[in-house]
Amino acid sequence: MKFKRTLATVGAAAAITAGLFTLSPAAQAAIPSCTDYTIYYSGSFYAKYPVGADGSNFCSLRSGASGQQVYYLQETLNYCYGQDLGAIDGKFGPKTAAALARVQRSLGIDPDGIYGPQTRDKIKWHWMTLEASNHCTTLPDAHAR
User: Fold this and answer.
1) How many helices (H) and strands (E) does the chain have?
2) Is the pTM of this model over 0.85?
3) How far is CA 14 from CA 19, 20, 40, 132, 137, in A?
């Protein structure tokens, strides 16, 4: 019996680590909104990405959100993923939700059109330098440089 319980615990931990379980809509709703942005530096490159009021990047963006944090998400969707959003306006509307869902699908994430922790961990952000050198990479990959 103890072996079965240990095996079940190890299996559940592996499934969570592999991302087989996703957050339920209720759990996603409990994630605080991204209300601001921050600048992440890696060497001479920097990226601007959404954060919550507490400065944490454990936050979400969804339809109806607006501000610079949405603007930088839209810029990334255009530059790194070729999503044609038209004018980048900092308003998370139907075009942004649809573009994000397409990118999520390509990344193997549930295409719900909501930016949250799973998307944050897989999305490639637009990185630049003052000399206008640009590339796209994830936050974890940039940290490993």
Assistant:
1) 6, 4
2) no
3) 8, 9, 30, 41, 26
The answer to whether the beta carbons of residues 11 and 3 sit under 8 Å apart is no
The 10s digit of each residue's pLDDT in 25-60 is 444 558 999 999 999 998 889 999 999 999 999 999
Q: In terms of Cα–Cα distance, which of 139, 144, 145 is closest to 127?
A: 139
Report the 3 state secondary structure along 19-76: CCCCCCHHHHHHCCECCEEEEEEECCEEEEEEECCCCCCCCEECCCCECHHHHHHHHH
- Give CA 38 to chain center in angstroms: 14
Q: Distance between alpha carbon 141 and the CA centroid of its chain, in Å? A: 14
Residues in contact with 82: Cβ distance below 8 Å, sequence separation at least 6, in sequence order: none
